[in-house]
Amino acid sequence: MTDTVTDRKTKKLNVAIVGGGLVGSLEALYLAKKGHRVSLYEYREDIRKTPQVRGRSINLALSVRGRQALRDVGVEDHIINHHGIPMRGRMIHRPDGSTYEIPYDSRTNQCIYSVGRNYLNSILLKESEKYINMERHFNHKLSEADLSKGSLTFLKTETYEKVQVTADLVVGADGAFSAVRKALMKKPLFDFSQQYIEHGYLELFIPPGDDDGFQMPPNYLHIWPRGNFMMIALPNQDCSWTVTLFMPFKNFALIDTEEKLLTFFEKHFKDSISLFGEKRLIKDFFSTKPSPLVAIKCRPYHVSDKALIIGDAAHAVVPFYGQGMNAGFEDCTILDQLFTKHDDDLARILAEFSETRWRDTFAISDLAMYNYIEMRDLVTRPSYRLRKKIDDFLFWLMPELWVPLYNSVTFSTMPYSQCVKNRQWQDKVLRIAMMLFIFVLVCVVIAMKMS
Ligand SMILES: Cc1cc2nc3c(=O)[nH]c(=O)nc-3n(C[C@H](O)[C@H](O)[C@H](O)COP(=O)(O)OP(=O)(O)OC[C@H]3O[C@@H](n4cnc5c(N)ncnc54)[C@H](O)[C@@H]3O)c2cc1C
Predict the structure, then answer these.
(1) Contact 323, 334 (CB under 8 A)
(2) CA-CA distance, 228 to 103, in Å (whole number)?
């Protein structure tokens, strides 16, 4: 027998969320706010009690989609006004050390924000303590799942005890190597693909200056584009910088001595050496190994009315559009809207999420791959800068009609697949305009010759 709308409104769901990272903690807040009984299970210990772990990006670029979700759960103001550092554009570092800026949005001056991963995660967990209908279980690793029954087995990592849990809804927000997704993969008609790119990343640090201030202008995402590789830097709240070097693994492997490292930096990132300090650069570079970057596409995201995957578990993307977390946060916003639209009817909510969301997550995955080429190579080309100027002018002239790709992805909530379509017709219009221009030019030259 199916529940009536009135039954569903009064009946609160038992929801088990696997993964208390950024997306899981946010989804827990959305559901707790709706009055459901939420249990959050996280493999690691409480992030608020552990020091920052190196190797995973320490800060992240937060943009409009992520901000909307944070606003819905009541923490946006705190994150933006008391923590985030605005980045208004890209600051490009040439090999000779000179720099120039490319604003993100010269029309309305919108910006993205550099936020600390651990800080944001901590704030979301702290906020969840306001809800008596929500429990947090740290040191719980999902080891088995029967998703059709909503049944989960966790291993308590401190005591090695097994804990059995049954829920009305299981939400898998357990990241790119999701255990919930592994259970989903055993279901028929589940499509899955993963792609490792040939580039890895390694994090380095620029400390605050002698005056304890920033050593570079802070309100930018700094980029050292070098064709096949690049380095970027995002500002931290303590006036340091988290610097990420993205490069093919085979190039990393060639740098195996201090001398080779310094020669490499002298050649490609000369202006950064004094900012790092030679000793620190050498220590940081050789104390860790480059990490891989993976993109995952799969569908459907759900099992009947019982289980769903969101965030990186459903769609890990390479980090070059700064959209992985933002897209995961947007999953939570969309789910929230579907809960309202379908009056908590899980079968309809999960089915609609699966049927509609994949087009957008596939689109941002492809855009993120493309943006790596733009960031490491195209930004330095005159053709890119000319196109940006044309886009900015047309955006200024017709803000409703001509929204450039970066702006639609980063500063709007336009579905990602629509952002791609938008760019395609803009490309077409510019191609036609260019052909017309050449045609008129040729006609004028011919007319002049004949007169
Ligand atoms: C170098 C780099 C830079 C990035 N920069 C940006 C950026 O600027 N902007 C942006 O929007 N995104 C960025 N991203 C992407 C962003 O980090 C991810 O999209 C985001 O962390 C996804 O959040 P999540 O909660 O889905 O997964 P995760 O953050 O991976 O969290 C998953 C959680 O699940 C837990 N877990 C795993 N397995 C189990 C299990 N079996 N049982 C219980 N718990 C489990 C994990 O411990 C973890 O806490 C970047 C990524 C990288 C690698």
Answers:
(1) no
(2) 23
| Helix, strand and coil percent figures for the chain, each rounded to 5 | 45, 25, 30
Place of tokens 């994150």: 79
SS3 of residue 134 by DSSP: strand
How far is the C-alpha of 264 from the C-alpha of 125, rounded, in Å?
42
What letter would DSSP give residue 37?
E
Identify which of 37, 111, 31, 39 has the alpha carbon closest to the alpha carbon of residue 72.
Answer: 31
> 216 C-alpha vs ligand 1 centroid, how far in Å?
28
Q: Cα separations (Å) of 153 from 14, 91, 256, 267, 398?
A: 16, 48, 44, 53, 55
Pick the residue whose CA is nearest to atom 27 on ligand 1: 175
What's the CA angle centered on 33, arms 29 and 39, to 5 degrees? 55
Indicate the angle between helix axes 416-450 and 346-376, nearest 10 degrees.
Answer: 40
> Closest ligand 1 atom, CA of 312?
26
Judge whether 171 and 15 are in contact, CB under 8 Å.
yes
Partner residues linked to 170 by β-bridges: 16, 307
68's tokens: 């909307």
Q: Is 120 in the pocket of ligand 1 (CB under 6 A)?
A: no
Report the chain's mean pLDDT, rounded to a whole number: 94
Give the whole-number percent of the chain exceeding pLDDT 70. Answer: 96
- The CA 311 to ligand 1 mean position distance, Å, reads 8
Whether the predicted pLDDT of 380 surpasses 80: yes
pLDDT at 2: 47
Which ligand 1 atom lies nearest to the CA of residue 323? Answer: 11
Q: What is the pLDDT of residue 94?
A: 95
| pLDDT digit string, tens, across residues 142-190 | 999 999 999 999 999 999 999 999 999 999 999 999 999 999 999 999 9
- Strands (E) across 275-377 are located at 291-299, 302-303, 307-309
